[in-house]
């Protein structure tokens, strides 16, 4: 009775008889089918890493960014529909600016996460709107230290030590659980993050590029893209690890 196509999926304001909101679940499916994005909170900061498929040989490298600066102390990585993610990122930047103007200090991570969750949740409440098809991973380094947050299409706002979203999320989470994040520096985490994305990449034959950023003591607690030489070294080690794994098999 409550299956897809019976009318309960026509609006985000309608519950099915078994308590589901299909429009919100469809938005989550858009995230689950997207490229893998992960975040790691280490002893000295947070690392964000995104896998981006190269859809055309004519595509300019580095275009269609999935990692954005929100404030000096906040960065965000987008999984799911990139245009939806840009809209939510813009809202996050507005919230950070508004908080600084009113209170005279940088917005704390938990406040930004909750405000962003409330904003995203609003799009699940009105029939004239559709839920955002994106999940945001927030890397923050505020007066309380480094923190990693996630806001999904339903508006749930959670804090993590490490997490992954997208197509390879489960395999990536399994790898993250093996890491000793509390003892790991961000420089080490960058290499591990790249290794994980190479390992869980399941689009055989399809070229992809990585986008990696960090916010840590080494960057003076400011969100920045990982230096090119460090990213190149991480990719070299990741490819070597894959080759060693194939030889063992």
Report on the architecture of this protein.
With 249 residues, this protein is an alpha+beta fold. The protein has one domain: Aminohydrolase, N-terminal nucleophile (Ntn) domain (Glutamine Phosphoribosylpyrophosphate, subunit 1, domain 1). It is built from six helices and ten strands; from the N terminus they run αββββααββββααββα. It has helices at 22-32, 82-103, 109-122, 169-176, 186-200, 228-248; strands at 37-41, 45-53, 67-71, 74-80, 134-142, 145-151, 157-160, 162-165, 208-216, 224-225. A five-stranded antiparallel beta sheet has the order 8-1-2-9-10. It has a five-stranded antiparallel beta sheet with strand order 3-4-5-6-7. β1 (37-41) and β2 form a beta hairpin. α2 (82-103) packs across α3 (109-122), α4 (169-176) packs antiparallel against α5 (186-200) and α5 (186-200) crosses α6. The chain is globular.
Kindly state the percentage of residues in helix: 25-40%
- Please give the count of helices: 6
Label the structural class. Answer: alpha+beta
How many strand units?
Answer: 10
Provide the descriptors you would attach to this structure in a database record.
249 residues, alpha+beta, Glutamine Phosphoribosylpyrophosphate, subunit 1, domain 1, 5-stranded antiparallel sheet, 6 helices, Proteasome subunit alpha type-3
């Amino acid at each position: 009775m409550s299956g897809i196509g019976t009318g309960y999926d026509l609006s985000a304001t309608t519950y099915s008889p078994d308590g589901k909101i299909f429009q919100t679940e469809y938005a989550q499916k858009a995230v689950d089918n997207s490229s893998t994005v992960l975040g790691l909170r280490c002893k000295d900061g947070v690392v964000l890493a995104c896998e981006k498929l190269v859809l055309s040989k004519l595509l300019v490298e580095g275009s269609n960014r999935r990692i954005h600066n929100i404030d000096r102390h906040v960065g965000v990585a987008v999984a799911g529909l990139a245009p939806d993610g840009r809209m939510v990122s813009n809202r996050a930047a507005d919230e950070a600016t508004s908080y600084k103007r009113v209170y005279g200090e940088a917005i704390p991570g938990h406040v930004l996460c909750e405000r962003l969750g409330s904003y995203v949740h609003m799009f699940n409440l009105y029939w004239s709107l559709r839920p955002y098809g994106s999940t945001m991973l927030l890397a923050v380094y505020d007066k309380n230290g480094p923190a990693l947050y996630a806001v999904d299409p339903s508006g749930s706002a959670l804090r993590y030590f490490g997490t992954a979203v997208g197509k390879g999320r489960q395999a990536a989470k399994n790898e993250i659980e093996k890491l000793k994040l509390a003892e790991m520096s961000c420089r080490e985490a960058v290499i591990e993050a790249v290794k994980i994305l190479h390992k869980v990449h399941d689009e055989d034959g399809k070229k992809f590029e990585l986008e990696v950023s960090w916010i840590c003591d080494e960057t003076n607690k400011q969100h920045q893209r990982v230096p090119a030489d460090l990213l190149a070294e991480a990719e070299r080690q990741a490819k070597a690890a894959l080759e060693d794994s194939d030889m063992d098999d």
